[in-house]
Amino acid sequence: MKRRFPALVAGVAVLALAACGSGGNGSDPTDAGTGSGAGTQYEGETLTVWIMEGTNPDASAFFDGVAEDFTAQTGAELDVQFQPWAGAHDKFVTSIAGGTVPDVAEVGTTWTTEFAEIGALADLTDRIDEAGLSDDLVEGLVEAGTFDGGLYGMPWYAGVRSIIYNTELFEAAGITEPPTSWDELIAAVDALKASNPDVIPFPIAGDSQFGVFPFVWGAGGDIATEADGTWTATLDSPEAIEGLEYYTGLALEHGSSTAAASTWNEADALQAFIQGNVGMIVAGNWTVGRIAADAPDMAETIGAFPIPTRDGGVAGSFLGGSHLGIFNESPNQDLAWEFVNLMTTGDDATAWAEESGYFPGQASALEAYVASDDPLVAPFAQQMLEGGRSVPVTGLYGQIQGAKTVEAMLQNILTERSTVEEAATEAVTVMNEIFSSGS
Amino acid sequence: MRRKGALPAIGRTLGVIAVLVFALFPAYWMISTAVDTDAARRGAALVPTAFTLSHFERVLDDGGFALFLRNSAIVAVGTVVVSALVALLAAVAVARFTFSFRKAMLVLILLVQMVPLEALVIPLFLQARNLQMLNSLLGLTIVYVAFSLPFAVWMLRGFVAAVPKEVEEAAYVDGASWGRMFRSILLPLVAPGVVATSVFSFITAWNEFIFALTFLQDADKYTVAVGLQRFFGQNTADWGAVMAASTLITLPVVVFFVIIQRRLASGLSAGAVKG
Amino acid sequence: MSTTGSVRVAPGVSRGPGDHAPRRPPPWRRASRPWLLLAPTLVILGVLLLWPLARVVNLSFQEYGLRQLASGETNYVALDNYREILGSEYLWTVVLPNTVGFAVACVVLTVGLGTLVALFLNMLGTVWRSVCSTAIMVAWAVPAITGTYVWVWLFDPLNGLVANVLSSLGVIDPGTVNWFADRFGFYSIATLNVVHHGFPFVAITILAGLMTVPVELYEAAIMDGANAWRRFWQITVPMLKPIFAVVTILSTIWDFKVFTQIYLMPGGNGGNAEVFNLGVWSYIQSFAQGKYGMGSAIAVLLTGILLVITVVYMRTLFKEEDR
Fold first, then answer.
1. Phi, psi (rounded to 5 degrees) for A158
2. What digits encode the pLDDT tens for the residues C212-241?
3. Of residues B46, B92, B107, nearest to C314 (C-beta)
4. Which of B48, B222, C30, C207 could tie B36 with a disulfide, CB 3.0–4.6 Å?
5. Separation in Å, CA of A219 to nearest CA in chain C
């Protein structure tokens, strides 16, 4: 579909932004320091916070503890409302339109710039600088939350995808060392297939964009590049095509997958994996906890290794997670920052990461994980530290995700409706249309 | 009441089996997964591996489902009562009176059913905000009344129209007022229609998700449909809990129906259908 | 219908020769009564649905994104959205055929199956009728989201029951087919799901209607030697015409705008644009892509199509009713 925004729109948007920036942000961050330290400064006030459901299995107990700390520190009450992921974006959008946003919300990293662009979120750069935190944040999360030079989301927790595998099936196939290059990955697929034809060695999930990106990056390709503020899709570059061909070729040429997987999303792939008949899948570090809950006996027989690049090395992998954002409409900007600060630094931040199985958003706290010798932590930490990447940091990429452009491309290739080149060209066309609509 | 049975007994038995299997299979799957110890790994197994109530415990304890069930019950019962009353009045108007714009009214009432609800989310949200209806179960009830009204009016119009005018006229001949005729003649005769409509309104209010999610700001006001979504993570799903929650959502609707079914029968015997 | 009235006597109302003439209200009260009866409905619908609907129409003439939504500004582009939709090949070759084909199949099957089941239930004794109608209610009561997941599981190309049975029969080789990726396969499963979820409404409603048909009519017809087929067409159908009409109209409206059952199926949430219907397309344009104006225009288009269908239905319906 063709779509051209007249130049006027951009102008209006800038005005709107400017209006929001000055009007909505009631308090000046620089006077935040004057009263800090007093434990009852905000007595009688209540801070409303939205937290996404399902990240931490025991989130309500966690936040009971946080609420106590928060009240002790500020005197204010904390009102945490858990939101289900399904429909969460719709809920944010209606609340922004209706002016019924909370003070603080957990915002998925891919939504932060989208909400920042329309003036809904407050710029936290000055507050973070003042608190002396700016040098100690996980880089990928900073990148994902940055819009127009400002940081609109405080890094809270991070997650990354690597490959988890079934150690029993690997042993049966005589694979002793996890693959560290593309050739070794193919060899592992072949060995799994040869040892037991009923095993699905490596299903290629068609409805998962974050499964394919590591292979595009691992071949030296990229999703899109930016020049002078304009993004250009590059999924049709020779490197990207090579990555796409390799990844889908695992399914189409090496029989690593199954026809059903062409419409699977990550949850479906995980579901198949815990049936015990799947060799390995691309999966996030948080799935380890899910497996322990759903299939406790299996938790003993899984391993993980970083997604390799073509020639050996750790491939780029999407660094996801969440920011804590403060809404411009919140009348309690300073109090909101107190909460954000409490959540993202110190004990509460590490406790959250531990309980939820994610990585903390503070670089110093992350170091402990990298040094870990836990075989289900270290590979993910390595992937994150050496390979953590962002998708194009622009609200427009949210539209591309909404349109499921990458997933549609994958499904077209996997069901052999199109060749890799055709599908990539089509995806690039769609992406460039969306990119150009914003400039 | 004696019904004419043209089918031989064997055909009837087979028919009953077919209806039961077709109607109940998904529900069977839902319930049997809800009590399966290994719910996430069930695959194609027709029978669960082992029996457990732990999924239900989790849903009720951690999920806070008891509260959601209560909220949904308030909203659903409110919707049923209000929409049945309001719709019955309107149905009588369009089925029994001739007035200008009657057909236009009928189309207009139906028109609002034609809009995809998803497109209404934002405009209706803004409207509800202006009317101070956000974050309240009463506000949500009124919205659901609006959703079920077009259906209810049309449905009851059919039932009212199916009552022969002669019956009413007989009442007038006997000197009954319109109000009396309405209460003692029309109402019992359309009772089965009211029942069918109530079931619909109940289910509409009980299962609606996106408006409940966006309108309600406090999580302790959420309804069961929102509660169900808590068991779907961003990239994972807790199937045992999802199916247990679904079972808890389904049960009250069936109970509501079983209760109201008796009224359907009594509505019949009170009505004038027996010679 | 005049043949039926004479046999009915309302209970509690005596009919004696000495009764006086009906008490009729004055003309102005008769004229205002329908409006009084309609007033609550019109107020609720007007405020809560018609006004927002007008806003949807208004949005459809704008290029309206998240920015406009957040700032509340307007951005009119006249008919651009409509021009783009109606000019796109995608609408004519994919979305519209999907929507119409799917809706027609669902309406025919839902009303057909629902009627059959209702007739069947009407033949049963009280106990089995209650058992069966309760079972049918269960099918209706299962949340659409759960029902959809169950059907998707049932048809899982790898581990599902259907694939297992077919492969043990040697019809397919599991792992080589994926019917969700195929437009026809996708919609066949969606149709099964929607019919399963929709037939209880038709069955229960028509059963309720059947129970208001006086037994004497059938007894008289049997005495006249009419068989079951003739009794159905000569008594049941004419008596229940208003109910059939409403069931068909409402099913048509619902089946044209099915959303949840498509959106939750593999590929239905955007990955496979081949399987969108108008409702899903509108939602994806609005909420996933942030093009609220475009999404609204698609919604208005869908509403327009339904309006035309309904008016045609009603023409036929009222022609007969008004005689």
1. -130, 155
2. 777 888 888 888 888 888 888 888 888 888
3. B107
4. B48
5. 24
Q: Does C291 touch chain B (CB under 8 A)?
A: no
A157-188 pLDDT tens trace? 999 999 999 999 999 999 999 999 999 999 99
CB atoms within 10 A of CB C86: 12
Residues A400-420 have pLDDT tens digits of 988 899 999 999 999 999 999
- Are A404 and A290 in the same domain? yes
Q: With an 8 Å Cβ cutoff, are B275 and C7 in contact? A: yes
pLDDT band of C24, cuts 50, 70, 90: low
In a domain, C4, yes or no: no
Range(s) of the domain holding residue C180: 57-322
Burial status of residue C116 (CB atoms within 10 A of its CB: 0-12, 13-18, 19 or more):
middle
Q: For chain C, how many structural domains are there in total?
A: 1
ipTM score of the complex?
Answer: 0.85
User: What is the sign, positive or negative, of the torsion defined by CA atoms of A322, A323, A328, A331?
Assistant: positive
- Whether A214 and A107 map to the same domain: the answer is no
Q: Which one of A46, A294, A302, A318 would you mutate to disrupt binding with B, by most B Cβ within 10 Å of its Cβ?
A: A294
- Based on the fold, state whether residues A219 and A273 are members of the same structural domain: yes
Surface of B (45-64) touching C: CB under 8 A = 46
User: Is A266 within a domain?
Assistant: yes
Q: Is residue C246 part of a domain?
A: yes
DSSP string, chain B: ------S-HHHHHHHHHHHHHHHHHHHHHHHHHHTBTTGGG-TT-SS-SSB--HHHHHHHHTS-HHHHHHHHHHHHHHHHHHHHHHHHHHHHHHHH---TTHHHHHHHHHHHHHS-HHHHHHHHHHHHHHTT-TT-HHHHHHHHHHHHHHHHHHHHHHHHHHS-HHHHHHHHHTT--HHHHIIIIIHHHHHHHHHHHHHHHHHHHHH--HHHHHH--SGGG--HHHHHHTTB-SS-B-HHHHHHHHHHHHHHHHHHHHHHHHHHHHHHHHTT---
The enclosing domain of A103 has a CATH number of 3.40.190.10
Facing A290 at nearest CB: one of B38, B126, B236: B236
In this structure, is residue A3 part of a structural domain? no
Pairwise CB contact (< 8 Å): C73 & A16: yes
- Per-residue burial over B223-254, b if 16 or more Cβ lie within 10 Å, else e, is bbbbbbbbbbbbbbbbbbbbbbbbbbbbebbb
Q: Which residue of B has its CA nearest to A285?
A: B235
In a domain, A2, yes or no: no
Q: How far apart are CA C304 and CA B113, in angstroms?
A: 12
User: How many structural domains is chain A composed of?
Assistant: 2
Residues in chain C with CB shorter than 8 Å from the CB of A3 are: 84, 291
Burial of A37 (0-12, 13-18, 19+ CB in 10 A): exposed
A306 and A324 share one domain: no
- The CATH code of the domain that includes C85 is 1.10.3720.10
Is C35 among the domain residues? Answer: no
Structural domains in chain B plus CATH codes? 1-52 (no CATH), 58-270 (1.10.3720.10)
**Full domain range(s) for residue A94:** 14-159+319-389
* B contact chains, 3+ CB pairs < 8 A: A, C
- Within chain B, which residues score under 50 in pLDDT? 1-5, 267-275
In a shared domain, residues A271 and A329: no
**Same domain as A429, residue A292:** yes
Query: Is C293 within the bounds of a domain?
Result: yes
